[in-house]
Amino acid sequence: MSARGAEQTAETGSQQIERAEPEAETDPTDEITARQLEHLAQLAAAPPTGPGVPTTRLSSEELCRLGQEIYDRELKSRLEPALNGKYLVIHVANGDYFVDDDDMQAVQEAMEKYPGNRFFSRRIGRLDRL
Question: What whole-number distance in Å separates Cα of residue 130 and Cα of residue 85?
């Protein structure tokens, strides 16, 4: 027993009880696990946005807000006016989108590529002038 261990030994009657000390050095795999757990905890606490985040975690309001932002920022200038009146379905987690004359067909294509997810949909163009 080391001098340090002897300091941690307490006698009770004729028995000796040794208290275990935590190791001074940590295993590198434990550090990785701790970092991964910390990252997962941060993800769980953060608002659910960005690539790879399941759209099922978004509220309807958040889904609509993100979908409209993607449309205004990235898609509007590409799709209008050439595709005005067609239906657009956006996967808000990654910005992938589907366009079709038939709204149900656009949704079906999105659901086939991203099963179990929710989507933002709208008609392309100004809604008051279709």
Answer: 6
Collapsing DSSP to helix, strand or coil, 88 comes out as strand
Q: Where are the domains of the chain?
A: 55-125
Contact present, 92 and 57 (Cβ < 8 Å): no
Q: What SS3 class is residue 127?
A: helix
pLDDT string in tens for the chain (130-residue length): 444 444 444 444 445 555 555 555 555 555 556 666 665 565 555 444 444 556 778 899 999 999 999 999 999 999 999 999 999 999 999 999 999 999 999 999 999 999 989 999 999 998 766 5
Quote the CA–CA distance of 86 and 31 in Å, as a whole number: 52
Nearest to 99 by CA among 64, 90, 111, 65: 90
